[in-house]
Amino acid sequence: MSVNKKDILVIYSFKAGFHALSMIPDSLVAPISSIGAKFAKNITPVRYKVALTHMRRLMPEISEDKLPKYVEESFRSYIRYWIESSQAFRWPFSKLDASVACPNLDQFNETFKKYSNVIVVMPHMGNWDVGATWFVKRGYTMTTVAEKLEPPQLFDFFVKIRENNGLKVIGLDKDAAAKLVKEIKSKRIVGLLSDRDIQKNGIEVVFFGEKTTLPMGPAVLSLRTGIPIVIATVYSSYTQNNSRFTVDLSPAIEFEPSKNFRSDIKNLTQLIADNLEKAIKVAPTEWHVFQPNWPIDEVKTSDNIN
C-alpha cells in the first residue's frame, strides 16, 4: 500500500506527539492540562462551542455565565486523558493497580459467572483506556471496537499499542457485529463505547431530554447471545502529582425480551441511554465528547463552520 507524503507527516506527527506525552513527568501533568484548557476556546473554537452546548444539557441548573468554567474543566480532563493514556500502557501493574479502584468488582464477577460472559457498555468518561488496561492486566480477556482512522497506518499504530497490553481491537465496519458475536461465544468480554452514533445508523432515543440516535450494536449483541449488559464508567480524581481512577460497574441491565425483535432493540437501547445518562451526570465535566451528538447540533455546527 502506497503512502503519500501528507499521510507520512500525519503518522509521524501522531507517533511523535504520543511519545512526547508519555514522557511528561507526573509533576507537570496538572499544569500542562490547565494551560491547554485555558486556551481551548482559541485553539479549537468549534469544539469549544459544541462542548458548551453539551454542558447546557448536562448541567441545566448552572447559569450561563458559569458554564465556561465547567467547559474549561472538561478540556482539562480531556488533556489529562491523552497524557495519562499514553503513559498507562507502560505503567508496571503495581502502579496501575494502585491507581485504580473498583468497588463493585465482586458483583461484576457474580454476573459473569452466572451468564458465562458480560457485554460492557461505556460512555467516553474519565479515562476508559486506563480502565480497560487495568481490566485486562487483572486477567480478564476483552475485545473492543475502534473507529477506523485515516491513514490506515495511524489506526494500526493505536491498535498495536492496545493489543500489546492484551486488549483485542476490531475495526468498526460492516463485519464487526458478526466478529463480536464470535468473541462473545468464545467467552471474551466485549467492551463498547456507546454514547456516540459514529456510523449514523443507530436507534432513536431520548438522551438528556432530547432525541438523538445511539448505536444499536450493544442491544443487538445482547438479544442475539442472551448475554447481559453492564455499564462501566471510569471516573478520575486528581491530587497534585497523581491521578486516581474509579471503575464503576453497574448491575446487569434487566430486560425481558418480547417476540418483537425490532421493538426489543429500540427499548433496550433506550434503557442503555438512560443508564449512560445516569453515569455521565455523576461527573459531567469528565464526559469527553466534543463532536455534535444531537441532530440539532449538527446543523448549528455546520453553520458555524460555514
What share of residues are in beta strands?
A: 15-25%
Q: Element order, helices and strands?
A: HHHHHHEHEHEHEHEEEHEEHH
Question: Based on helices, strands and strand pairing, what is the structural class?
Answer: alpha/beta
Task: Determine the number of helices (DSSP H or I, runs of at least 4 residues).
Answer: 13
Give the N-to-C terminal Cα separation: 35 Å
Assembly type: single chain
Shape: globular
Compute the number of structural domains.
Answer: 1
- Characterize the main sheet: 7 strands, mixed
- The residue fraction in helices comes out at 40-55%
Gyration radius over CA: 19 Å
The overall average pLDDT, rounded, is 92
Q: How many strands?
A: 9
> Which strand order do you get reading across the main beta sheet?
1-9-8-2-5-3-4
- Poorly predicted runs are none
Summary tags:
306 residues; 7-stranded mixed β-sheet; 13 helices; globular; alpha/beta; two-stranded antiparallel ribbon
